[in-house]
Design a protein that fits this description.
- By secondary structure, this protein is of the alpha/beta class.
- The chain has one domain: Rossmann fold.
- The protein has a seven-stranded parallel β-sheet with strand order 3-2-1-4-5-6-7, sandwiched between helices.
- The protein starts with a strand and ends with a helix.
- GO terms for molecular function: acylglycerone-phosphate reductase (NADP+) activity; triacylglycerol lipase activity.
- Keywords: Oxidoreductase.
- This is SDR family NAD(P)-dependent oxidoreductase.
- One of its GO terms (cellular component) is lipid droplet.
């Protein structure tokens, strides 16, 4: 199997690449900042660059001798309250999480169609169950799923397209949110990285392609509730947020000032 992984030098990417390489796959990666100790060859590529992406993808496919599997793993998070105007942080998340995935996938389509391969999209539980103060991440991941749905309709006769929905995993993706005083500790239950890797492999290697895959049993329940009982999940998240505000979790966080003030008025 010939595999291309984006975000290959990050927490998820390194683990996915190492596992596939250990199974005997031929794996190449793309990352903005490859590391000397990456488990596979990783090409430097800024997936927000319209011209750089086709060149890097072409080089990777040439090295692999074709392409059977694309794992769109690259993504970033960051603080972005929905009540505030979209700025550079919002545009950055949308450009990487959604448009970066779109650019890479488009550059891979011909090779994947030729091999009747698969695409695995690393989405997020937040694609279906939004958390507060992180609107850009949730919006980008929900839009990613919409893109995957359209892609499936267009190339699904030849290429399988699966979305994988991890919850929270401890990794540097949360650092910028925590630095802004908007840590979502207590809003999510962390899950092990191994479960995410295992689910990605299931999406890649199963006999028939899955449409959507949660990474834990709890995640599957949350996915079902968010899809079929969204008002209930809204109430659960809102109640949890209220508890976080009362505990002083957002004290001094300027981006959360509106949320804190409104909860104070209703408390």
């Amino acid at each position: 199997m010939r595999v291309l992984v984006t975000g290959a030098s990050g927490t998820f990417g390194r683990a996915i690449c190492a596992r596939l390489d250990g199974l005997g796959a031929r794996v190449a990666g793309l990352d903005l900042a490859p590391r000397a100790d990456d488990p596979v060859e990783v090409l430097a590529c800024d997936i927000t660059d319209d011209e750089a992406v086709p060149a890097a993808v072409g080089a990777a496919i040439a090295r692999l001798g074709g392409l059977d599997l694309l794992i769109n793993n690259a993504g970033i998070g960051g603080p972005a309250p929905a009540e505030l105007p979209p700025g550079a942080e919002v545009r950055r998340q949308l450009d990487i999480n959604l448009l970066g995935t779109w650019r890479v996938t488009a550059a891979c389509v011909d090779a994947l169609v030729a091999s009747r391969g698969r695409v695995v999209m690393l989405s997020s539980r937040m694609a279906v169950m939004q958390l507060p103060l992180a609107a850009a991440y949730g919006a980008s991941k929900r839009a990613l799923v919409a893109y995957a749905d359209a892609l499936r309709l267009e190339i699904g006769t030849h290429v399988g397209v699966t979305c994988v929905y991890p919850s929270a995993v401890r990794s540097p993706i949360h650092d910028s949110t925590a630095a802004a005083g908007l840590s979502l500790e207590g809003m999510s239950q962390y899950e092990p990285l191994e479960g995410v890797v295992r689910t990605v492999l299931r999406a890649a290697l199963s006999g028939r392609p899955h449409r959507d895959l949660a990474t834990t049993r709890r995640g599957a329940v949350e996915f079902f509730l968010a899809r079929h009982l969204p008002a209930l999940t809204d109430r659960i998240v809102a109640r949890t947020l209220a508890g976080r505000v009362r505990s002083g979790a957002f004290e001094g966080a300027g981006l959360a000032a509106g949320v804190v003030a409104r909860h104070g008025e209703t408390g």
